[in-house]
Amino acid sequence: MNEKMLPPIAIELTKSPKARPPADKLGFGKYYTDHMFIMDYDTDRGWHEPRIVPYQPITLDPSAKVFHYGQTVFEGLKAYPTADGRILLFRPRKNAERLNRSNERLSMPTLDEEIVLEGLKQLVKIDRDWIPNEPGTSLYIRPFVIATESALGVAPSREYKFMIILSPVGMYYAGGMKPISIFVESKYVRAVEGGVGTAKTAGNYAASLKAQEEAARLGCDQVLWLDGVQRKYVEEVGSMNVFFRIGDKVVTPALNGSFLAGVTRDSVIQMLRHWEVPLEERAITIDEIVQAYREGRLTEIFGTGTAAVISPVGELCWHGERMKVGNGSAGELSARIYDTLTGIQTGKLEDPFDWTIAI
Ligand code: COI
User: Which of 240, 241, 259 to mutate to test the pocket of ligand 1 (most atoms within 8 A of CB)?
Assistant: First the structure.
């Protein structure tokens, strides 16, 4: 019996398990496991009927609010197998907390974080055979909430679904740890302080697509976002937080209310402090980055996120100039952070931070 008397999760197992995809074909988010978690909400009953069912399509009324007003939030975290047969989740409580912060911002009902954790643990256990164990692979866990009330008035939905789906994944970028090029975006903005930039909600990602397409046309892999007001402070890279190694220190933009407080960002900050690498969390302008480049002090740039873990940046495209950072492979610090983080996540290295939870 759970200490907190969580509602029991009903379980219906699939009668037709699917074939597992080969590890070298995984890519990111192309395959889904045999089961999914669902729980419903309405204003009379609150969250109710948690259940694990065979993975299947869902039916919604065309007027469901999620389709029209974008009331939806999501999370992303990963499960890893260990050599001794355990399954490790990486800081899942942080994701459950952030899911609720996103829910609050979008005027959506918060969830009992214990039921979120219990739902995802049980689901991962049921589909544990789907967890790949080749280097660079993992089971990506995607919890999300959608507004399902059929009504076109602009007001918070009175009905929702919370779901969790699982996807065996390889590296997020096809090139793995090969450094990417980034285009410093000065025309479009992703989010502004006071908006929904700190929530993990669909609109932020939809807003980024146009810039991403244009950057790709110019031969760049990702966009480096500047702040939406003065267009001079660096915020994020693609859908990741960003770190710069300048001289003997590492600098990352301080959380300012317009971009996401990444779980990997927080983990990297803790790790660098543990290693006594000088680290500054502060506002940082693109001019400062360019100046550091010109003076030869900008030695590494890397993005951090759940999907890619660490993504080294090898080129900065700014005002038609292509500035090479590093020597074409992952920088020494980026590689050390990646190896340590994935070592902890997969149980190969000791976890001095108590980040992983075995299920
Ligand atoms: C992450 O890496 O944390 C992300 O948010 C990427 C995801 C949208 C695919």
Answer: 240
